[in-house]
Specification:
The protein is mainly alpha-helical. It has helices at about 10-20, 30-70, 80-85, 90-100, 125-135, 150-175, 180-195, 205-220; strands spanning about 105-110, 115. The longest helix is centred in the first third of the chain and has 44 residues, at about 30-70.
């Protein structure tokens, strides 16, 4: 029987890891458990990467767009973005590779270099970013092994699901095509401004201007 490890809970995963520390790996049963846990770990990592890559890519692009458009900071380093995302710079640079390949960002080397957007945020949609970092066939994962083709359900369930998943994917892309990077950037900056000036009843655009002026002053004093 083929088990899909992606459905395992975190607690079960940690429990299995604890069991791993107490088994003798030279025992055949122990080796089987080790193999099972390694597969579990790989599946879990793939699942997390597939689900977070798109969000992190948007976070990256919003950071570049906001700093470039609102603060005048032309280049942003991967470690600066990583600090905002709360991840390792290696993760940022890996996703940057996909965004760069898609023509959304460029980079310049040197102590004062970094990444910068190569297209206006108004001209990039969330569908563009999604296509740059996600595999169309990876959005919905099928069984981790081929279902039993001798079973009526096992033989026919995947074609049925493929049709539904295709319609779902097409609907998702249609929705994402209606939202630009500038839309997300503007909304994020506005929320940031409202958080900073919670009790201020000044119109939001004036608050944004004040926020930008203060940020630029901070940059000039570095």
């Amino acid at each position: 029987m083929c088990w899909n490890q992606r459905g395992s809970s975190t607690s079960n995963f940690l429990s299995n890891t604890f069991v791993l520390s107490s088994i003798a790996v030279d025992n055949l049963t122990g080796i089987a458990i080790v193999t099972n846990l390694v597969s579990n770990l790989k599946a879990k990592a793939t699942y997390m990467n597939t689900n977070s890559r798109f969000v992190v890519a948007i976070h990256i692009m919003v950071t570049l767009a906001a700093k470039n458009k609102f603060s005048g900071q032309q280049y942003v380093r991967s470690d600066q973005i990583a600090e905002s995302v709360n991840t390792n710079p290696v993760v940022i640079r890996r996703i940057m590779g996909s965004l760069k390949k898609a023509g959304f960002v460029e980079s310049i080397s040197g102590p004062y270099g970094g990444y910068y957007p190569s297209r206006a945020p108004e001209d990039i949609t969330l569908a563009d970013i999604f296509s740059a970092v996600e595999d169309k066939d990876g959005l919905f994962q099928m069984h981790s092994c081929q279902p039993n083709q001798e079973c009526l359900i096992g033989k026919n369930i995947q074609p049925v699901l493929c049709e539904i998943f295709k319609e779902t994917y097409d609907g998702l892309i249609e929705k994402l095509e209606k939202v630009s990077l500038m839309d997300i950037t503007a909304q994020t900056v506005e929320r940031s401004v409202r958080d900073k000036y919670q009790d201020d009843e000044t119109p939001v655009q004036e608050l944004v201007d004040r926020f930008v002026d203060e940020y630029q002053l901070k940059l000039n004093n570095l």
